[in-house]
Amino acid sequence: MTEYLTSYVQGEWWTPSSDARASEVRDASTGDVITRVSTDGLDLAGALEYGRTVGHRSLAALTFHQRAVLLKQFALALTARKDELYVLSARTGATTSDSWVDIDGGIGVLFSYSGKGRRELPNSRVHVDGPVEPLSKDGSFLGRHVYTTLPGIAVQINAFNFPVWGSLEKLAPAFLAGMPTLVKPATPTGYVAEAMVRILVESGLLPEGSLQLVSGSVPDLFENLRLGDIVGFTGSASTAESLKAHAAVQTGGVRFTAETDSINASVLGTDAVEGTPEFDAYVRQLVTEMTTKAGQKCTAIRRAIVPEGTADAVIAAVQARIATKTVLGDPRAEGVTMGPLASTAQRDEVLRQVGRLQDAGGRVVVGTTDSPEVRHADGSTGPSPDGAFVSPVLLRFDDAQADAVHSIEAFGPVSSLVTYTSIDEAAALVARGGGSLVTSIATHDPAQAVELATRIAPFNGRMLLLDRDDARSSTGHGSPLPNLVHGGPGRAGGGEELGGIRAVLHHMQRTAVQGSPEMLTALTGVWHAGAASHAGGRHPFRKSLAELRIGDQIVSASREVTLDDIETFARFTGDTFYAHMDEDAAAANPFFPGRVAHGYLLVSWAAGLFVDPEPGPVLANYGLENLRFLTPVSPGDTIRVELTAKQITPRETDEYGEVRWDAVIRNQGDEVVATYDVLTLVNKQPTPEAVPA
User: Fold this and answer.
1) Residue 341 confidence class, pLDDT cut points 50, 70, 90
2) Nearest to residue 553, comparing CAs of 625, 436, 645?
3) Catalytic positions
């Protein structure tokens, strides 16, 4: 590794000039100097503008699906070289399992967003939100909400504990939204983030300007931000508050989202006594959260809230599990299960916070604050004065209401235990944290789970209900998932990182658009009733995606519905509901004039009225959505169907795509009988038998 850690800005790798104020970054286990970090001479304003211009143009040229495919390719490129990241990660104090959470977890986020982007977003650049809002009686004036990409750059300030996952969980949704990213990793572990970015740059896959990296401090960052930019921050609650107060955020229109440290809790239910699966799962989870990443997780359990009579049993079980399962030492040594903190400065800060908890009444009941004996890389055991090692520590507070236990976080392998005497008290103790990323509840009693969950949900971004049925399959208290919200209210920052497509939309602007059906069709790429349609000529089912156009339509012939049809359908399907079979009972129903046709009979007939039966570009009907029956059909009525190409979505990686068709069934009086969307899979190119002679 070079003497100075490099940055990647304006399409080039940049190395700082010699700077006496450069920060030294050391190996967390040995104290050896790894690299030096400085941004002396870096043109931050130029980097931001490069992202807004070059990066934005590159990404704006791509659709959601094209960006999603690139995310998968990024993931594959990182997977091919992840061993390089594992070697560096060990120097941060991470064990192999810790590194798996960070590195493979981050790669998994890319895969997840790639899949969700292709499944849940259109193959276009505008995302439509919600249904049409009719604004006029004749349908000539409509409203729609759309999401469009913000014009700025996403600046992502990450914490030291997850240099890969922390970067990729912000990059993935921003990239999918079409927003260029500037990553600012935390200095103590920034060399791992730099290696990750280097792999992506060397892959040749990055659109120009879509990703930049600043290794080191950015003191004038907010002075160079403007409307359209967004800052995603992960770190301490106090730092987040100071950044949020900046004029660029308060009055300048810069969006600021934060995910900060929080005093997370885990509640043991009153039914989960010693010997139950829930008790065992609770203890396993608590120890895991204390020792994984040496407790350096914003989602780690800081408060173990247990029934008054089970405290001693929990403490004893935690003590026994740590004694048998935890080996503290250099992650490169055989058998080590818990490494050091990320730096000696972090070690000293954790011990300082433990001292504050002790001063407030906490008693150390598991572990010690003394310098521990550790296993070195060569397999020997002894002290490591230059390493950032801290033993797992569990404190007990006799006073569950002590302010310190609900407000002081020792960001390391440290948890505090308090007791409760009622569900009301347990819920109140969780709330004392002032807003958390996650709380777990270990109970097999549904009533207790529901009572606690409904009481504490407003104070948490995520909750885990842990019991014997999901203990083996649960991803755990401290594991954010890309398809679920990661964030929380109050002290936890108030933001929502991840959460599937929700996180993508955080990087876009939702705008209400009012206009005619024709204009809204042009803007959204989705056909709206009242816009131009094209009936006649070649049947739309004979057209491949290369030939089909939004608004292509077939209007079917009419078909009469007879009483014999209704009775035949009833006998054939077994659906003999009285509305179809009993004239008097049907007439007594306020919704029907008498016996009526089955809704699914009408939908089935509609398919027969609009289908083109011969082989061709249409490969399959794979769904029907938004079905509504509006007007009953009586014997003697006739129906016809209008089928219009509503949305065309080619798949980037397949030879076919999806077509959403707007289906409307009408009766002889032109009343709407039913509306729904038909979904088909259609070849991109004409099949030989579909090409006109």
Assistant:
1) very high
2) 645
3) 259, 298
Above 90 in pLDDT, residue 276?
A: yes
> What is the number of other CB atoms lying within 10 angstroms of the CB of residue 620?
10
What is the pLDDT at residue 20? 66
Return mean pLDDT, the chain: 92
**The token pair that represents 160 in the structure block:** 């030291």
Rg, the chain, Cα only: 30
Token reading at 417: 């235990």
Sheet hosting strand 508-515, strand order edge to edge: 127-134, 142-149, 508-515
Is the C-alpha dihedral spanning 56, 60, 61, 66 positive or negative? positive
Which residue, 226, 243, 225, is CA-closest to 234? Answer: 243
Q: What is the pLDDT of residues 8-40, one digit of tens each?
A: 999 999 998 777 678 888 999 999 999 989 888
Here the tokens at position 692 are 């006109």
- Do residues 341 and 390 make contact, with C-beta atoms less than 8 angstroms apart? yes
Question: 43-76, pLDDT tens digit by residue?
Answer: 999 999 999 999 999 999 999 999 999 999 999 9
Q: Which of 644, 640, 642, 626 is nearest to 528 (CA)?
A: 644
Q: CA dihedral in degrees (280, 282, 285, 291; nearest 10)?
A: -90
pLDDT digits (tens, 9 = 90+) for 72-129: 999 999 999 999 999 999 999 999 999 999 999 999 999 999 999 999 999 999 999 9
Q: What's the confidence (pLDDT) of residue 22?
A: 85
The predicted-structure confidence for 645-687, as pLDDT tens digits, reads as follows 999 999 888 889 999 999 999 999 999 999 999 999 999 888 7
DSSP one-letter string for 127-181:
EEEEEEEE-STTSSSEEEEEEEE-SS-EEEE--SS-TTHHHHHHHHHHHHHT--E
Task: State the angle between helix axes of 277-291 and 311-325 in degrees (0 to 180), rounded to the nearest 10.
Answer: 50
| Class of residue 330 by CB neighbours under 10 A (exposed 0-12, middle 13-18, buried 19+) | buried
* Strand locations in 567-684 (E): 618-629, 638-650, 656-667, 672-683
DSSP string, 24-69: EEE-TTT--EEEEE--TT--HHHHHHHIIIIIHHHHHTS-HHHHHH
* Contacts of residue 198, Cβ cutoff 8 Å, sequence gap at least 6: 8
Whats the size of the chain, residue-wise?
693
DSSP-H helix ranges across 408-551: 423-431, 446-456, 501-505, 517-524
Task: Indicate the helix (H) or strand (E) that contains 228.
Answer: none
Q: Give every CB contact of residue 362 below 8 A, 6+ residues apart in sequence.
A: 354, 395, 396, 397, 402, 404, 405, 416
171 Cβ contact list (under 8 Å, min separation 6):
156, 181, 183, 211
Helix (H, G, I), strand (E, B) or coil at 560: strand
Q: Read off the pLDDT of each residue in 411-437 and give the average, rounded to a whole number.
A: 95
In the chain, what's the furthest Cα-to-Cα distance? 94
- Please state whether 75 falls in left (phi above 0), alpha (psi between -120 and 50) or beta: alpha
Cβ count within 10 A of residue 520: 24
Least confident of 363-372, 460-469, 682-691: 682-691
- Residue labelled with tokens 């990450």: 158
For 204-310, where are the alpha helices, taking DSSP H only? 237-244, 247-250, 277-291
Cross-strand pairs, 515:
142
